[in-house]
Amino acid sequence: MTVRTTLKTKRRLPTRNTSNSDSDSEPLPPSDRRALAEAFGTKKARKRLQDQTENAISPSKSIRPNQPLDPLASAVLSTMPTSNPSRAKTAEEAASSKSIPKPNLSASSPSEAYPISTLVGNTDNLSNIRIQSLLDSVAASASVQINSHFLGPLLVKAAQARDIRACRLLKYTLLLIELYKIIITPPPGRPAKPHAPKRLPRLDTNVMKPLLEAYTGPLVDATAIRFTENAAGCGGNVTKWHLDLLVTHILALSLHVATPPFVVDTWLLQKDLVMDAPTIGTMFKELGCEVKAMGKSEMEGRKLSRAEGGLRRLVKLKVPLTFPGVKIGGGRRGMGR
To answer: DSSP labels for 192-234?
Structure first.
């Protein structure tokens, strides 16, 4: 019996010829040289190999200057993005969905981040605010009733200095706080229900009479339109989104009127808005503010105990704005919620 076999040849990598003559050696194929370099090459050799690969697949590196492109290459390159999406654009889209005033992302100073014109709306709103009785009362050293822990001392100080613009801005901020208190206060005889639908009373109701004595009806209603569902104004529904929008407008205005400007100790605002420190801190962060607990030196400067200092936050508005998770501009990432 005859057995016939066929041996399948297997190509072996040629071994290096150690003889003095190189006439019988064959050069390694490119694929074998690449395999050897990846397996046994030095770090520098592997880096060179990687650069060669990148150059081979990168259109910007493989095309020589002034070299014409074939139609297919031109079509492919025309569909490739030339740059990454702007981080500022990403942050602008994120901010637009929040219940906050529209920020000025190109602001170069804190005063430009949330302009007064944006917070107040129609510029006639400030000029229509009545302040003469306040000025007269302060000038006569008469008692002044101001329904705000935060704004009270600031209003008296501005009236004493006869700062008309500051008085009007402070009183407009007071109007927003008064509207907020009316919205969150349940009607007489009804228990408080935090998650129940909220409504702003009509102008002709008793609860709105004090506002009509301090402000004009058209001003109150025009202001209410911005913070009610479907721009209904007084008598309209107030969703959580609209209520948060009202609060963030109050906080943004508080930064403008604070002393020093754009630095706020939240304690008195917490009392006005019936909020704890973490809640109001979160709302300020939504505006892009820096929020931190008070340090020892800050407590000592305000003559606060450690327990008292722990109940409040110190807020600063800086540019570029830093929103939760997104920062406008370079540097470190923004704070998370």
So the answer is: --TTS-EEPPPTTSGGGHHHHHHS-HHHHHHHHHTTSGGG--T
- Tell me how many degrees the CA angle 129-130-133 measures, rounded to the nearest 5: 155
**Neighbour-count burial for 78-98, b at 16+ CB within 10 Å, e otherwise:** eeeeeeeeeeeeebbeebeeb
Residue 96 pLDDT: 67
- State the pTM of this model: 0.70
Strand spans (E) along 134-209: 198-199
Distance CA 300, CA 244 (A): 33
Angstrom distances, CA of residue 323 to CA of 109, 117, 130, 265: 16, 22, 36, 20
Predicted confidence at residue 124, as pLDDT, reads: 79
- Give the tens place of pLDDT for each residue, 196-252: 788 999 999 999 999 999 999 999 999 999 999 988 889 999 999 999 999 999 999
Domain-wise residue ranges, the chain:
111-257, 262-327
Say how far apart CA 96 and CA 174 lie, in whole Å. Answer: 26
